[in-house]
Amino acid sequence: MSKEKKSKISYFQSNFTSTVSVSLVLLLVGIVAFLAIVANNFSTELKENIGFNVVVGDEASAEDIIELDKLFKTAPYASRTRFISKEEALKSWQEETGENLVELFGVNPLGAEFEVYVRSEYANIDSLTKIENKLGKISYIDEIVMHKDEVDAATKNISNIAIILLAVAAVLLFISFALINNTVRLTVYSRRFLIHTMKLVGAKPGFIRKPFIISNMINGAIAAMLAIVLLLAIYFSIQEIDNSLLAGIDWVNSLIVFSGLIGIGAMLCGIAAFFASSKYINLSYDELFKR
Predict the structure, then answer these.
(1) Using an 8 Å Cβ cutoff, are 155 and 123 in contact?
(2) Predicted TM-score of the model (pTM)
(3) How far is CA 141 from CA 58, 63, 129, in A?
């Protein structure tokens, strides 16, 4: 086998190894990105299942209740509402406790009420306090029950999850660049004597770097596509097991993640190739045997 053929095989093997290595790194980045999407959807759903109850006084007329219903349906903070009449509240109480309040008190002591669920952006203590103060000015409202403890606990838990995911993403991106940098350096290392030859015939550093940067950016994009194929395989496998685990992952979010992976793969490989080729451009012939 000729020396040139051996060199080509060695270069192909190093390129193949680097592409597979980069794709595995990008696969982890993609998994973290999708976990972030699922976590964000879960937090939004959790927040929108938290709200408050508005108990209406007996003095409220049918027109007052209709007016209040319109207020909640048009309010920017309300995602959905439910009106519970005095009779429905009494029936629900009897089903849950087995007590007949009418026999105990002679009348139905429960009032009609609205269950109001807020949009995720309003599910915080400050927004709920403002809503409570505004509704407190309406004379025929007897009581406003804000679930502030639940909101506070949910907000803290969601913030903790977000911090953990951001920390994992930051560490993973740092590790990704380190691994990709080492992998790309190996591919450039296998061509270090070609770099020296190009330098001897008078090629400028920019001219020498260009093919390495372009080829490694292409390899990075190919590695990202391989990672995308693996992610799709994982996606459809999980979908067959339990579709609810993939809540919030639609094709729009998927395309954003896939485009990001291709961009990250190409960019990181291009940057790594720039530094690796620059290193060997600056080495003398004797130093090429040592590094």
Answers:
(1) yes
(2) 0.68
(3) 9, 14, 16
